[in-house]
Amino acid sequence: MRRVLLLIFNFIFVSQGFAQTSFGAAENAGDAESLEAPVNSCDPASLCAEYTKMILEQARKLDGKPVPEFFWENRGTRQKQEWDYALPFLAQRVIDRGFSLPKPYGLSVIFFHQDQGINLGDLKLAFKDDVPLKDIDFVKFTNAHVENYTWQAKLDAWIFPFLNVFAVVGSIKGSGNVPVSIAAKDVFASEGIDICDGAHTPELCNSKISYDAPINYYGYNVGLGFLLGAGYQNYFFAMPVTYVKTYVNVTDVPTYVFNVTPRLGYNWGGPLGKMGFYLGANYQQMEITLRGRYMLPLTGTEIGHDVPVNYEIKESPMDLWNAITGLNWEISKEWSVVVELGYSQNRENQTFVMNYRW
To answer: 133, 189, 338, 349: least CB-packed within 10 angstroms?
Structure first.
């Protein structure tokens, strides 16, 4: 840049030197000595020390500073920005109206942790391996909850300036406990032991068998979704809608999870990039059918041995909605980080996202 500026200033000052020389020659046409004096005093091939000093001083002042481009044919108008990508459609129209757009393609790594209370129902049990499952209504469940960890990769693209579509794939691992309470007489009856029907029944018949049935599962998930987004000045709205199918080891029936998460936020710029703070809500609907086997510890009772329990049960969340708050840190046009917290009476979740765009 300095070399270019030097050439420009050289041209300006040398041109001024020629102009002054010509002006002096015309004014003193009858005097030969006057004609030669200006030319010899400043040779255009080697600039005068005074001109050189002025050129270096001006270049020093401009060094490192932006020099605006100017085109005479475009004077008084802003230079048009060209969108160089195939997606999203209608991008050029949006940019011409003064809006900025993110780069069209993205790849994200997502970590999600959730701990929530669950409703359990439609229980089917079999106390023997060779007996089919049957509906049971004498088992009570209280304060059941599950905790899971999910890692996902997400690939997305902006189809329109307001519409983003994406696909996700990942792994899931979870655990939990189900506090179960069963009337002992019902267990005896299911085993064909008629000790609770007589006039003098054992004390055990009036008791309950209570235990925590553990839930441990792992598997993978795949899903599709879209996001609707809009912005005005520094405010923005985003609402992702996701449908995920999960396969876990405790059941041969896939789990379906449907999420809608509207968010409203505000962006502000800073020395470390653009920050976007937002509030919103998360709607989560799912229905999981769990199948498994558990051994009831009844060795020390009249039954005399542990009883295998094969079960099938449906699980759904206690809370369909939870509040969320989050921060989107746009480090650059390529990199961004999202941290989000969700909370309700029976649900807590945390989300961390690292996103790269191109």
So the answer is: 133
Q: Is residue 21 within 8 Å of residue 39, measured between CB atoms?
A: yes
304: left (phi over 0), alpha (psi -120 to 50) or beta: left
pLDDT of 67 over the 90 cut: no
The sign of the CA dihedral 174, 179, 183, 188 is: positive
226-269 pLDDT, tens digit each: 999 998 889 999 999 999 999 998 887 888 999 999 999 999 98
- Enter the pTM of the model: 0.69
CATH architecture of 91-357: Beta Barrel (2.40)
Q: What is the pLDDT of residues 29-50, one digit of tens each?
A: 333 333 333 444 455 555 556 6
Name residues whose C-beta falls within 8 Å of residue 318's C-beta, 6 or more positions apart in sequence: 116, 117, 118, 119, 345, 346, 347
Q: What SS3 string covers 45-84?
A: CCCCHHHHHHHHHHHHHHCCCCCCCCCHHHCCCCCCCCCC
| Helix ranges (DSSP H) in the chain | 2-27, 32-41, 49-62, 91-96, 184-190
Q: Is the dihedral of CA 110, 113, 119, 120 positive or negative?
A: positive
Mean pLDDT of all residues belonging to the chain: 78
Q: Please state, in angstroms and rounded to a whole number, the distance separating the CA atoms of residues 346 and 358.
A: 39
Instruction: In whole angstroms, give the CA distance from residue 118 to residue 277.
Output: 30
Rounded CA-CA distance 324/114 in Å is: 13
Report DSSP letters for 208-249, one per residue: EEEEEEEEEEEEEEEEEEEEEEEEETTEEEEEEEEEEEEEET
Query: Distance between CA 310 and CA 136 in Å, rounded?
Result: 12
- The domain limits of the chain are 2-67, 91-357
Q: Which residues contact 246 (CB under 8 A, 6 or more apart)?
A: 172, 219, 220, 221, 254, 255, 256, 257
